[in-house]
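Hey team,

Filing this mostly as a record. A colleague (T.K.) asked me to run one chain through the structure pipeline before their review meeting, and I want the input and output archived in the tracker in case anyone asks later how it was produced. No errors, nothing strange. Just documentation.

Input sequence:
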Amino acid sequence: MIRRILPLLLLTSLAAEEKRVPTAQAMGLLKTQCMGCHNAEKKKGDLSLETRESALEAIKSGKIISSLTATGDEHMPPKKQLPEKQINLLKSWAQAGAAWDVAALKKFGELTPADKLAALPPGHAPATTLALSADGKWLAAGSGNRVVVRDAKTKDFPIIAALEGHKDVIQSLAWNNDGSKLAAGGYRSVLVWNAANWKVAHTLAAPLEGRVTGLTFLADKATLILADGPTGVKGVLHRWKLGEPKPSQTIEAHADNVLSLTLSKDGKQIATGGADNLAKVWDAATLKEIAKIEGHVGHITALAFNHDGKWLATGSADKELKVWDIATKEMLMLLGDKSAPVNALMWSADSTALTYLTDSGNVFHITELKSHDGVRLAFTSGKSKKLVALEGVPYAAVSDGKTTFGALDSGKVVQLDEKANVTKLTSDISPLTSHSPTLSYTRDILPILTKAGCNLGSCHAKSSGQAGFRLSIFAFDTKSDFMEFVNDSRGRRVFPARPEDSLILQKATVRVQHEGGQRFEPDSEWAKTVAEWIRQGMPYETANQPTLNEIAITPGEKRIARARRSR
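Output structure:
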C-alpha cells in the first residue's frame, strides 16, 4: 500500500511545486538578466537560453545554477549579483522541470507602439508639468495631452496658444534660452514648436522607449537632454541635437525611470532623480556622472540646484526634503514637516530660502537654513512656515522669483503672489467632454487589490511600502491608497492612453519584473476590470454609489449550551 501511495505523493508534490513556481516570472528573469548575452547570435560561453531545449541543456550541465552564485569571469549576470529571492526562484523553476511560456516570454518587456494609443478618458486632463521662459514672458503648462501657453507679462495671463500633437499625458516641458522654441515630452516622442508661429519644427521619436519624463535645453539653444525609458524598467538619458535623426549620446542613468530632471543655473550640471531612490549629478557636456546621492528611501520627485551649483536639494516620496553638498555627497540639511511626499521645490534667488509643495497640496517656505549638526536624528535645518493649502495635488511648480505657479491634478494652474494669495488662472480652452463611469475604485478596484494580496503587511502595506508603492494595511485608509495608485509620481502607475499597458497591470501580470510575482493572468476578469476603470477616468466613486451605513448580524443573540463532560 505504501509503495503505491509514495509515487502518488511525489507526483502531487511535483505538481504543487510546478504550480507554485511562477513561470512568467522565470521567463522575465531569463529575458532581462540572461538572454542579452546568451542568445543564438552572441551565444556567450557557448550558451543560448532562447528556447526551452537549449535552457534544459544548460540546466542539465549545471551552468545556470552554478553561475548565479559563482565569482569571477563565470559569474552571471556579469555586472551584479541577482537578489537571493530571484536566484531561488530560478532554482525552483529549474528543479520543477523548467516549464516554458512562449507567450509570457514574448510579452515580457514588450513596448507599447506609439501608434496604438487611444484617446484619453473623458475629462482626464491633469496639469502635470510647467515651464517658464527665461525672460519670464511665456508660461507653458501640460494639460492632459495639450500644451497651453500663456502670456505671463500680461494681466490675467491670457492664453495665446493651445498646442496639440501628443496622445498621452504631457510629461515634461522646456524652453530654450531665448524662448524661441518649446519642447514637450510625451510617450515615445518629443515635439518642438517655434514660438514665432507655434508650428511644429521638430519631432523626435525612435529610439525612444517610454514616457519622456524630463527635458532641458543646453546653452546652444538647439540641443536637448531628455529622460526616457520603459516604465518600471530603466531610466535613460539622451543627448539629441535638433535636426539630427537620432541621439548623439545615450546612457543608462538609473535602474528605474527618471522622475525629475533639472539644469544648474550655469548650464554645466544636470541632476536627475529616479524611481530607484537615487539622485545623480551629471556633467552637461559629457553626461559623465559627477555624483551619486544615496539617502532617500522613496522616489526622487523634485530637484533644485542652488545659485552656484554647489548644492542640490532633493524632495522625495519618502516625505523628506534634503540638501546635499555635491562635491562631498554629504547631507547638509534635513528639512520639511515630513507629512507628505515632496512634489516640487525651488530655491530663492540667493539660496537663503526654499519653497516646496507636497502631495497633500500644502505649500511651505523655509528660512534660516543651517547645516545639519550630524548628531540628532530629529534635527531640522531651518524654520518652516506653511503658506497655503491648495485644492488638489500639485504635480509641478515654477517661479520667477516673485510669483509662483503650480500645476494641479485637476488640470488647473494657480498663481501664488508674494503674499501667498492664490489665484486660479482662467481658461477659454474648451474642456474635454465628461461622461458617467460605471466602475469605481472603492467598489470595483479595491476588492481586487485586497484579493490579490497587494495590501498585506508582507507586500505593499509594509511601513515603508514596496518598490515605491505604499498601501495602507487592509485598506484602512482608502482615500490615501487611491491617491497613491492614481497620482503618486505624477501618475506613473496608470497609462490612460493605453490602460492595459499601465504599470500596475504590467507588474501584476509579470510583464515587467515584480518582486511579488504574478497576482493574476493578463486576460483575467480582474485585469480587464482594472483596465476598463482606467479607461473610464479612474473615478474614486461613481454618482449615487451605495455606501455602507451599518453592519447587522441576525440573530442578534444566540445562546449556546455548555457541553456536558463525558466520562
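Quick notes for T.K.: The chain is about 20% helix and 25% strand. Residues 2-20 form the longest helix (19 residues).
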